[in-house]
Design a protein that fits this description.
six-stranded antiparallel β-sheet
């Protein structure tokens, strides 16, 4: 599940990441897009307390390991996004990041 992913701009640079498809996430899903919540879960659209989230890379295709963020900051890095308490359970804890802003 956790893979070495190549940096978009320099293929010699790799970082730890998880492909959203591998954990069954649909980032920015239709439920998220239709949500009326102020800070909805990026996956399911339900209300979050905005305390947990993930760092998104590859233009929305991967979750980036927090320790590797500088390696992933290429053209596809998108920033931190809130993930609700139920959805975050699908993500290995080492990838969880407490509340931030993009």
């Amino acid at each position: 599940m956790i893979e070495q992913i190549h940096n978009h701009r320099n293929s010699e640079i790799t970082y730890r990441g998880i492909w959203f498809d591998d954990i069954g996430f649909e980032l920015f899903s239709e439920k998220f897009q239709k949500s009326k919540q102020e800070n909805p879960c990026t996956v399911c659209g339900k209300k979050t307390n905005n305390s947990l989230g993930v760092l998104v890379g590859r233009g929305g295709a991967t979750i980036v390991h927090p320790e590797d963020i500088e390696k992933a900051e290429d053209g596809g890095y998108m920033g931190w996004f809130a993930v609700g308490n139920e959805c975050i359970k699908k993500v290995p804890k080492e990838f969880w990041v407490t509340g931030q802003t993009n």
